[in-house]
Specification:
alpha/beta; 1156 residues; translocase; Rossmann fold; 60% helix; 3 domains; disordered N terminus; ATP binding; ABC transporter transmembrane region fold; ABC_transporter-like_CS; six-stranded mixed beta sheet
Length: 1156
């Protein structure tokens, strides 16, 4: 515990260090922005000097109160007073112009420099992530990494932009105000300042609490984000096993933690505000009471003007401490976020993928030697995978590594590519220790094809081009022909420009494999590594591809094949097969078309507020507190005017009495502030956090950060404040109020422009950052493939290009924000100038009293402050609306097949009779490619039916239709004679279990992964062991240090392919299904495991309807019916012996495999 403490304390970077990515131009912009902030900050205290002068002029110098309440001219001529007032009014105009120019500079320059630095941080962070070695990825949570890449860097951007400008502006106001106060009246200044320590202490204490709660909240949200990403990327498996409810609970649990912390944070931040306002109102009372005492005791140089100038200068100073707190908090949060980001940027990998050091061999002959190599994965150091391996491979040799699952075949291959370094011993190529060679240059000599090939979400052409820089289209076509991929590619309407979908989701397993082989061949590699390269291919393709590979081996210097004698094995290359983050829960998982940003529905405020329906008691109480709080400033303006004008009376006793009464009222207003802010925090905070949790829960990741409770409070408070201010102003001086209000629309118009611009930018930013995020996610999730292909730089370049558009938008945004801020800020001073000039005229004309003028002024000033505060929320409001639009688009999207639907029949018993009746089908994203063409087939209950045929003929598609992931375009799929569309979809899926070619495992323990098979009940440990034994994985699990509690890693990366496959089989068996779907279920197993598993599958398929998709014909000889598919139609069907007698397609396939 003690050792952890310093680490926790230092979880922020230094205030200067956060700007370490600034260049010369940035430093210039920051300095100019800083100077502009200081000038702008001085405007407010200087204004209080002019206000003091005006008050003196009005009350003492030129107007004498006679017995009647009429004002008449006296000693000072009207002209002299007019001259003075015009002069003072011009000062106001001057301050306004200053605020306009410097306000624009401070905001736009800081927003620009923040954008420039953030862009650099994003690039550097992504570069650093790509530079890390594989062992780092093994132990880090990819979902959390993606959250860091977006959320944390956004926080840095928020903290180093205009918030810094406002922070320095506040500091300037504080210093100048204090100086004016001390010069004009040091006694009153010191008394007024006496409460400052209390204000600062309360703000600091609460600020500390809020920061610590913020980091806890962030952690909870990033955990929830990691769960969401894992689940959405494995959505088919989740749905197939009916685990939606279980996953929602897992996600919601993390949200609950975040909600509890969030409520505490809301209360703490409101209490902080309440305490500041309580002490400030107390200070008002104290200052006026003491100021009156000084004037009454005849202290020299103390007039009501002096008291006002000192008071407002000091109050503005104190107010700025309060106003600076949120900006300081944002800056501190940014420093906290930067700690994590910079930590990764500065992390020096053991094997740096971008390293320029190391020897570059001009040509590799191909002598490979493993000398006494021992190795264990850094994430599991207790399990030795290689124990003193010695192996020599001569140039031009083909070497096959065979052995049971987990024996270290794929590990040896990964060490050879230098994805890891050995713990002991070393590997040499042509006599050079590979650790002395340049990593990128060395890896370029390899061609790697692995068992679960990773394709990127782009065209077929680009995927093959990733193999080698600068290859021509002819080279690509040649490689495609050699990999037997050319024919199927040319059948697509867009041929080589066909999009493969995210993770290659649009392609069948065999098609993906052949594209990956073409990608390896186009590299013309010196060393070719085939890690189960042909496991997903049908027999015909396999023989063609094997021939191409053999031919290529003659060019390559050597080939290392990871396999079993004549049969196939798996690799432990832990490539992720992850579907799109944005996959819909139910429909069209394969669509590569991204969630379109365009045509988002317009969201009304009423619709957003309706979301609060179940929290209405909290909202009502919070709103009442806001209403109460909104009355404080208008009441203040009346008391303030009464204090200023009470000096028209020269009776000292009355003055003393009035001063005491008014001072007490200020204290009461302080108490009201404190109580109402606490109630707001408690109820709005609760409502807001519950709503956020509910929306995240509903959308499961359509994030709506902004439209939560506390903002509603600010808006209500400001509305009441503005409304009351206007009413009071009309009562005390309707003409002047009308004049000031006539200017107000200009301010509102500025706000509208800002809001509209910000909404546009918020949407564009979201789009571009999502695009960049998608590239980053794809790179990080498929990092092994990227390293093997040495494509790190290509991904970095794509990422940078995507950031460029967002960067340009931000620079435009900086100008608009700067102009709108400057205008709304300077406008107050112009309004004062006009108002005072008109007010003097009204007083001289006898149509208004000085008291009335001060009330109107103060009330409108506070009203304007409320407008200003509301306008500050414009960008947040626009982001909230944009978020709400995305959220409603997601929530209102009606899936074609609703996984949550309660409708449809649930029959008492499912016998397992299946029928395809005239079924035609194409994928929604590729309507021009018909996969199944009028397929008709009956499968009797308890029978085993096998689908065979070349890749892309519709075998796996048929399996997906049985699970009702899709509905046929034409025809029907029937279960026990009932159309699948009429059955309850959850009930239907609960009758089916699937073991697929690329099994998806979750980042939890082995026991949890097996128990995932049945999410409708709590599964006992005995049952888990039984199915593990049946799937021939029990003894392997028992050999692990943590046995069934061993974590399998993200997507099961800690296990070999065969081990993953057997876990998936155990998971399916646990379901006790009526219908068992085996989609290449044993393709990843070695001979021995396959026999045992096949025996287990034969045993468990008795009495169940079994549909098998396979290329390996030896596994289906005993099937009751074998169906040969070709181009989506049944070419022939029958038992193994019948089909052999036909001497047609099946006969040729069997012969091809026997020869092999």
């Amino acid at each position: 515990k003690l050792q952890e403490l310093p680490k926790v304390r230092k979880q922020v970077v230094g205030p200067i260090e956060i700007f370490r990515f600034a260049d010369g131009l940035d430093i210039t912009l920051m300095i100019l922005g800083l100077l502009a902030s200081l000038v702008n900050g001085a405007c407010l205290p200087v204004m209080s000097l002019i206000l003091g002068e005006m008050s003196d002029n009005l009350i003492s110098g030129c107007l004498v109160k006679t017995n009647t309440t009429i004002y008449r001219n006296c000693t000072q001529s009207q002209e002299k007073m007019n001259e003075d007032m015009i002069m003072l009014t011009l000062y106001y105009v001057g301050i306004g112009v200053t605020a306009l120019i410097f306000g624009y500079i401070q905001i736009s320059f800081w927003v620009m420099t923040a954008a420039r630095q953030t862009k650099r941080i994003r690039k550097q962070f992504f570069h650093s992530v790509l530079a890390q070695d594989i062992s780092w990825f093994d132990s880090c949570d990819i979902g959390e990494l993606n959250t860091r890449m977006t959320d944390d860097i956004n926080k840095i951007n928020d903290g180093i932009g205009d918030k810094i400008a406002l922070l320095f502006q506040n500091m300037s106001t504080f210093s100048v105000g204090l100086a004016i106060g001390l010069v004009k009246g040091w006694k009153l200044t010191l008394v007024t300042l006496s409460t400052s320590p209390l204000i600062i202490a309360s703000a600091a204490i609460f600020s500390r609490i809020v920061i610590s709660l913020s980091s806890k909240e962030l952690n909870a949200y990033s955990k929830a984000g990691a769960v969401a990403e894992e689940v959405l990327s494995s959505i088919r498996t989740v749905i197939a096993f009916g685990a939606q409810e279980k996953e929602i609970q897992r996600y919601t649990q993390n949200l609950k933690d975040a909600k509890d912390v969030g409520i505490k944070k809301a209360i703490a931040s409101k209490l902080s505000l309440g305490a500041v306002y309580f002490f400030m109102n107390g200070t008002y009372g104290l200052a006026f009471w003491y100021g009156t005492s000084l004037i009454l005791s005849g202290e020299p140089d103390y007039t009501i003007g002096t008291v006002l100038a000192v008071f407002f200068s000091v109050i503005h100073s104190s107010y700025c401490i309060g106003a600076a707190a949120p900006n300081f908090e944002t800056f501190t949060i940014a420093r906290g976020a930067a700690f994590n980001i910079f930590h990764i940027i500065d992390k020096k990998p053991t094997i740096d993928n971008f390293s320029t050091t190391g020897y570059k061999l001009e040509c590799i002959e191909g002598t490979v030697e493993f000398k006494n190599v021992s190795f264990s994965y850094p994430s599991r150091p207790s399990i030795k995978i290689l124990k003193g391996l010695n192996l020599k491979i001569k140039p031009g040799e083909t070497v096959a590594l065979v052995g049971p699952n987990g024996s270290g075949k794929s590990t040896a291959v990964q060490l050879l590519q230098r994805l890891y370094d050995p713990d002991d011993g070393f590997i040499t190529v042509d006599g050079n220790d590979i650790r002395t060679l340049n990593v990128q240059h060395y890896r370029k000599h390899f061609g790697v094809v692995s068992q679960e090939p990773v394709l990127f979400g782009t065209t077929i052409n680009n995927n093959i081009r990733y193999g080698q820089d600068g290859v021509t289209n002819e080279d690509i076509e040649k490689a495609a022909k050699e990999a037997n991929a050319y024919d199927f590619i040319m059948e697509f309407p867009k041929k080589f420009n066909t999009l493969v979908g995210e993770k290659g989701a649009q392609m069948s397993g065999g098609q993906k494999q052949r594209i990956a082989i073409a990608r390896a061949l186009v590299r013309n590699p010196k060393i070719l590594i085939l890690d189960e390269a042909t496991s997903a291919l049908d027999t015909e393709s396999e023989s063609v591809v094997q021939a191409a590979l053999v031919k290529d081996i003659k060019k390559a210097d050597e080939q290392i094949e990871s396999a079993y004698s004549a049969e196939k094995d798996t690799s432990s290359i832990p490539l992720c097969s992850v579907n799109s983050m944005k996959s819909d829960f139910t429909d069209k998982f394969d669509e590569s078309t991204q969630y379109k940003e365009t045509n988002l529905p317009e969201v009304s405020l009423l619709k957003i507020f309706k979301l609060y329906k179940s929290e209405w008691p909290s909202v009502v109480l919070g709103t009442l507190a806001s209403v109460l709080n909104g009355t404080v400033h208008p009441v203040f303006s009346i008391i303030f005017a009464k204090i200023v004008t009470m000096f028209e009376n020269d009776d000292k006793t009355t003055l003393k009495h009035d001063a005491e009464i008014y001072s007490m009222i200020f204290v009461i207003l302080g108490v009201i502030c404190f109580v109402s802010y606490f109630i707001q925090g408690l109820f709005y905070g609760r409502a807001g956090e519950i709503l956020t949790m509910r929306l995240r829960h509903l959308a499961f990741k359509a994030m709506l950060y902004q439209a939560t409770g506390s903002r509603v409070g600010v808006l209500t408070q400001n509305a009441i404040n503005m409304g009351l201010s206007v009413i009071i102003s009309f009562i005390y001086g309707w003409e002047m109020t009308l004049l000031i209000l006539s200017i107000a629309p200009v301010l509102a118009f500025t706000g509208m422009i800002e809001t509209a611009a910000m909404t546009g930018f918020a949407n564009k930013d979201k789009q571009e950052l999502m695009r960049a995020g998608k590239i980053a996610t794809e790179a990080v999730e498929n990092i092994r493939t990227i390293m093997s292909l040495t494509r790190e730089k290509a991904f970095e370049q794509m990422y940078e290009e995507t950031l460029q558009t967002q960067h340009r938008n931000t620079l435009k945004k900086a100008q608009i924000t700067g102009i709108c801020y400057a205008f709304s800020h300077a406008f107050i001073y112009f309004a004062y100038a006009v108002g005072f000039r008109f007010g003097i005229y009204l007083i001289q004309a006898g149509r208004m009293t000085p008291e009335g003028m001060f009330i109107v002024f103060t009330a409108i000033a506070y009203g304007a402050m409320a407008i200003g505060e509301t306008l500050v929320l414009a960008p947040e409001y626009s982001r909230a609306k944009s978020g709400a639009a995305h959220l409603f688009a997601l929530l209102e999207k009606k899936p074609t097949i609703d996984s949550y639907s309660q409708e449809g029949k649930k029959t008492d018993i499912c016998e397992g009779n299946l029928e395809f009746r005239e079924v035609s089908f194409f994928y929604p994203s590729r309507p021009d490619v018909l996969i199944l063409r009028s397929l008709s087939l009956s499968i009797e209950k308890g029978k085993t039916v096998a689908f065979v045929g070349s890749s892309g003929c519709g075998k796996s598609t048929s399996v997906q239709l049985l699970q009702r992931f899709y509905d046929p375009v034409k025809g029907q799929v029937l279960f026990d004679g009932v159309d699948a569309k009429e059955l309850n979809v959850q009930w239907l899926r609960s009758q089916i279990a699937i073991v697929s070619q690329e099994p998806v495992l979750f980042n939890c323990s082995i026991a949890d992964n097996i128990a995932y098979g049945d999410n409708s009940r709590v599964v006992s440990m005995n049952e888990i062991r039984e199915v593990a034994k049946a799937a021939n994985i029990h003894s392997f699990i028992e050999g692990l240090p943590e046995k069934y509690n061993t974590h399998v890693g993200l997507k099961g990366t800690q296990l070999s392919g065969g081990q993953k496959q057997r876990l998936a089989i155990a998971r399916a068996l646990l379901r006790k299904p009526k219908i068992l779907l085996l989609d290449e279920a044993t393709s990843a197993l070695d001979n021995e495991s396959e026999k045992v598993v096949q025996h287990a599958l034969d045993k468990v398929s008795k009495g169940r309807t079994c549909v098998v998709v396979t290329h390996r014909l030896s596994t289906i000889q005993n099937a009751d019916l074998i169906v040969v598919l070709h181009n989506g139609k049944i070419k022939e069907q029958g038992t193994h012996q019948e089909l052999l007698r036909n001497r047609d397609i099946y006969f040729k396939l069997v012969n091809a495999q026997s020869v092999q």
